[in-house]
Design goal:
Length: 424
RNA sequence: GGAGGUGUCGCAUAGUGGCCUAGUGCGCCCGCCUGCUAAGCGGGUUGAGGAUGAAACCUCUCGCGGGUUCAAAUCCCGCCACCUCCGCCA
């Protein structure tokens, strides 16, 4: 949710941001109209209500005929107050609905356009030349089967397409990555968290996932609860309805949680292996700070993500995601894409978003500082999403015989093994 | 799942239809007093919105949402959270 004052003071900023996203700016005029109706209806209601309160004070002191007259007068006024209040509430709700439908204002620095209009900021590391090494790289599914790292057939048997079991060394890899990520994160000043993966509508709506992304979200109607697609949701809602102390900023949390995604509309896309799945585990970083500090925190978040991929010795590139592909909450987003040898391309493994005050306004999270109490800024970034990271490790560090070299930084978390071997 | 209880300002409490414009104590902030500290004295101390050049000012906020009434912290209904007990359960 954006600041209503921008509507009055500088609506062209909103129009420009909508255009960068490739979306219609017609909503801006609706917003302006709704905002005016809200203000005028508040004025009407409050004037009537003040009159009602004044008269009400006279009643207990009045006697006889005068009292009867006052009662008749206030009774009539009471109906008008009720009507004015209803009008005012409806106008406020209309404005709120429109405001919540509007995505965050895409940063002028975010490239304009859609999914393909990203800008590559840098490429780190060099993809291996398997031809020069004299063998054809296997893809992650083949490697996973040789190593006994996961089982997609039985995943489909038990839960359906896009489900899997992590098995043997695959399960161990997830635990190792989790422990390594949590260790790193706490060294960086993040509080480790294990949050609930089922949340109320407020949390899901407040983080901006019930807009265009709603089709991708699992919902349990019997309990009116949502399965989170990322622990960004319970972490953002963690401090909802709270006023935080500016001195304590930034607050940093790193959460391990399962993530559930319906993947609606992705039929036939990435169907092989465990690249695109309905459930996976992830360690997510989340930061509460002030708007002013958020830009630097965003860079810092990206720096940590890069440090993580460096530690895993994976080649990757960083892209500046285009405005149309930001999602509702972010003004700017950097994705890290690891090189996937069998696909011959870079694929997203992590993402860092600055949501500025968008989520905090919806969830009513404020920061009290020297210059008053203002909405907090929130940022989120992936530290490690399990299946894709496991894919990247297996494919990039594979050896000719199907073994996989364990990157040095991960070895302490994997029984000091330097290589994982095929089953037989 | 069943039965009962509780929910008021940062904390603790008072308040059972109209002088509640929510009192008091503690904590916190400012000032006075004071070798220093404490005590004492005086003042301030929820949040949101509207109005204004800025104020004064006005409205809302007693877990949340409805209702009754001229008038609701107070009465009624629904929901939520917490506590106690029973059942079930990892």
């Amino acid at each position: 949710m954006i600041d209503v004052r921008v509507l009055r003071d500088d609506p062209d900023v909103i129009r420009a941001a909508q255009k960068r996203r490739g979306e219609s700016d017609a909503i801006v005029d609706s917003l302006i109209g709704a905002e005016e109706r809200r203000r005028s209806s508040i004025g009407t209601y409050e004037a009537l209500r003040a009159e009602q309160k004044q008269l009400g004070k006279l009643i207990p002191r009045a006697e006889g005929e005068q009292k009867q007259q006052l009662l008749a007068q206030t009774k009539e006024l009471s109906d008008r107050v009720k009507a004015a209040e209803a009008t005012q509430a409806a106008a406020a709700a209309e404005l709120d609905d429109l405001l919540r439908a509007l995505p965050n204002l895409a940063s002028p620095e975010a490239p304009a356009g859609g999914e393909d209009d990203f800008v590559t900021l840098e490429e780190v590391g060099t993809p291996r030349d398997f031809a020069a090494e004299g063998f054809q790289p296997r893809d992650h599914l083949e490697l996973g089967q040789m190593l006994g790292a996961f089982d997609v057939e039985r995943g489909a048997k038990v839960s359906g397409a896009r489900f899997y079991y992590l098995t043997g060394v695959g399960a161990q890899l997830e635990m190792a990555l989790t422990n390594m990520a949590m260790t790193r994160a706490s060294e960086w000043g993040f509080t480790p968290m294990i949050p609930p993966a089922l949340v109320k509508p407020r949390a899901m709506e407040g983080t901006g996932f019930l807009g265009q992304a709603a089709d991708d979200v699992y919902y349990l109607p019997k309990d009116d609860l949502y399965l989170v697609g990322t622990s960004e949701v319970p972490l953002a809602a963690y401090h909802s309805d709270e006023i935080l102390d500016a001195e304590q900023m930034p607050l940093r949390y790193a959460a391990f949680s399962p993530c559930f995604r319906r993947e609606a509309g992705s039929y036939g896309k990435d169907t092989r292996g465990i690249f695109r799945v309905h459930w996976f585990d992830k360690v997510e970083m989340f930061i509460y700070t002030t708007l002013e500090a958020s830009y630097a925190q965003h860079e810092q978040l990206l720096a940590w993500e890069k440090q993580w991929l460096d530690a895993l010795e994976l080649p990757y590139r960083v892209i500046d995601v285009a405005a149309g592909d930001l999602g509702a909450s972010a003004i700017r987003k950097f994705d890290c894409e690891a090189w996937i040898p069998a696909q011959g391309k870079y694929r997203e493994v992590s993402s860092a978003s600055n949501c500025t005050q968008f989520q905090a306004r919806r969830l009513d999270i404020r920061v009290r500082g020297e210059h008053g109490t203002v909405p907090a800024a929130t940022l989120n970034g992936t530290l490690v999403a399990m299946p894709r990271t496991i894919i990247a490790i297996l494919e990039n560090h594979q050896l000719a015989n199907g073994s996989v070299r364990v990157p040095a930084a991960l070895r302490p978390y994997l029984q000091d093994r330097d290589v994982i071997e095929p089953l037989s």
